[in-house]
Amino acid sequence: MAGVSTYLNFDGTTEAAFEFYKSVFGTEYESPIYRFGDMPPQEGMPPLSDAFKDKVLNVSLPIAGGHIPMGTDAMEGMGHPLVMGTNVHIMVHTDSRDEADALFAKLSDGGQVEMPMADMFWGSYYGSFQDKFGLNWMINFGTPQ
Which of 72, 75, 60 is nearest to 4 (CA)? Predict the structure, then answer.
């Protein structure tokens, strides 16, 4: 496997939190900060309000020992309210689509799929779910988010 990241959800303070972590660790973002306004409209999705467009969809920041925390703003108005306890995900970065599919199938068995594996607008093959023990997972192959 290529790597594992911790995925953190914030209540609209993702950018402030990651700017703080960036100053503490003296590192730079792995890729540009993606914002909800960067996301192409999805079928059945209501238009984004101006308040949501500038919120963080995804950010990643290498900190120490090869660990790369990633984060997003959990947007209640988008159906993802922040609940302490569900604000952390384990993201597995795979070396192939086949590995991504196999891990997704095995880990999600008996759990609840949030987003099936699919090609994403940012260039990755990605899916997310909660396993049968209540742990949140994201599987990603391709472009770092």
Answer: 60
CA quadruple 20, 114, 117, 94: dihedral sign: positive
pTM over 0.90: no
Which tokens is 106 given? 């095995």
pLDDT in tens, the chain (145 residues): 577 788 888 888 899 988 988 887 789 999 999 999 998 887 887 788 888 899 999 999 997 678 898 999 987 766 677 776 677 888 888 889 998 999 899 989 999 999 999 999 889 999 999 888 677 889 999 875 5
Nearest to 100 by CA among 118, 120, 87: 118
